[in-house]
Each structure stands twice: as structure tokens, then as C-alpha cells.
């Protein structure tokens, strides 16, 4: 059984809209759509110049939501993110000036170029959908979606993200260099004009919230849940892993699998949905042994090997509702 035509069309329209400026990265765009519909946040790690910021801006423009950008720098303060209260001499009262975190789609650009203290200012908002300033707690919008970018840690002037903050990102993605054909298409499309100016909203905030509600109702059978848990529990026993995936990671993997099935136009999850999203949901949540941690992409490789060694349940009627 499939979703309604309108839901399918909205998801397709958004992906195709972003592809008008981001060439050859359909899988990355689809995974960001998965995170958006699952109610999670995304961390994109890659070298400078491959289009991370343009991708995030294109997503925001396609939604037609309030977009805010935070450029992380070494001197950025927590109050620069959350906002602060300023004394108004005219009325003798303190007035709250909201920071850029009080938006719908937040671009946290080069998040690892600021100190861990400032990075942690994002944590309450990402985890609890609210911020506390001067003892007053303020809710964030119903649609609150953080897409953070970071450069690889070996680049000068970067800081490692705290494990607690990494765990708040539903997915960690990498764009990579374009193929020769795609890069030639990029050169052909570049005319000196702002390509983002051509993007028009194809969804509204209400559309996204409704699509999220539908994605949450995607059916997951017991056999698929057990397959998901087999993968998660294997990370806690693997000899190359010091710290495995937590129950929060299990829940996020379930949410991502539901959203992936929804984007794939199904209202039930199959084992291949779990297999497709697991490396992007789990790799940044494990801590490898010290002698393994230095290798590039080691965590994702370990997760992929775990998946390969776990038996995939046979497709049955019980998986389909």
C-alpha cells in the first residue's frame, strides 16, 4: 500500500527543487529530506567548497520557512545564538531580543570552528525544542530543523564536537567531490548569477508538519524492530567499539527508517530501509577503540561490517499493513 498522491508529489517536488542548484547529490538530498520528515537534525561534514552551505540554503528556500544562519567563529558567545535580555530605559523593563536560534530552519555553519561552550548552547534547543535565557524558558517553533556543517577536524582552527551534541544529530552525512560529469554540469550552469535566487518555495511549514505526522504513522513490524535491535546491540559487543549505540540511537534509527520508507512512497518499513539509514544514524554515535579511531571513515566502516554480518529477515505478510 502506498501513500496519497499529494504526499508523494510534495516530497518529489522538494527534492527536484533542490536539485536545480545542487547537481549529482540526489542521495544526500533524499537523506536530508528523511531527517526533516523524521523531526531530526543533520550534520554535514566535508571539505570547504563542495556546496554544503548552498545545499542547506536550497532546502530552506524550498520549504518557504523562516531561515536563520549562524556563522560559528572562535569569538562567538552562547548569547549570540540564543538571544539575550536588554534593559529598555524608556519603559524600565528588560526586553528579550531573540537570537538566530529562534527560527524554522537553522544553518549552523562551520559549527566546529567555535569553542565547545558555545557549541553546547545549541544542545537544549536541539534536544528539547526550547531555550532558556536569564531563567526564562521559551519554546522554539513547531518546525525547528538544524542543519550544521563542519570541516574535517584535521583542518586548522577546528574543535571536536562533544559526544552529547553529536548524539543530538539524527544523521551525519558527507557530500564528497562531484563526478567529472557533474562538475562539468556545474560549470555549464554557473553564469555569475545567484542560483539560489531562482528557487521558489514548493512546500509550506504546514505541509512539512503534516508530512511528519504521516511519516510517524508508518508501520513497523516486530520482525523489523528485532532486526534493528540486532544491529544496535551488536555495536555494544563489537571488539573494535568502546562505547556502542544508546537507546536514543535505537529510537532515532526507527524514526529514520520510517521516514525513509515514507520518502520511498511506502507506509510500512522493510529491512532494507533500516539497512539504508543505519550507517548515517549510528556511525557518529559510537566510540571506537583508540587504535581504530584515527582512520578516516572507520566508524562508518565498522557499522557497515556489522550490518553485513546480521541476517536480514525474510519478507513476510506481517511486515506489510
TrEMBL record:
Which Gene3D superfamilies did the record assign?
Magnesium chelatase subunit I, C-Terminal domain, P-loop containing nucleotide triphosphate hydrolases
What InterPro entries does the database record attribute to this sequence?
ATPase_AAA-3, CbbQ/NirQ/NorQ/GpvN, ChlI/MoxR_AAA_lid, P-loop_NTPase
Q: Which UniProt keywords apply?
A: ATP-binding, Nucleotide-binding
- SUPFAM superfamilies in alphabetical order: P-loop containing nucleoside triphosphate hydrolases
Its domain of life?
A: Bacteria
- Pfam families recorded: AAA_3, AAA_lid_2
Q: Does the keyword Nucleotide-binding apply?
A: yes
Coiled-coil positions are: none
ChlI/MoxR AAA lid domain mapped to chain residues: 234-302
Which Gene Ontology molecular function entries are recorded, alphabetically? ATP binding; ATP hydrolysis activity
Using the record's annotation, list all stretches that form the ATPase AAA-3 domain. Answer: 41-171
**Keyword ATP-binding: yes or no?**
yes
Protein family according to the UniProt entry: Belongs to the MoxR family.
Which protein, by its recorded name, is this? MoxR family ATPase
Q: Which organism is it from?
A: Sporolactobacillus shoreae
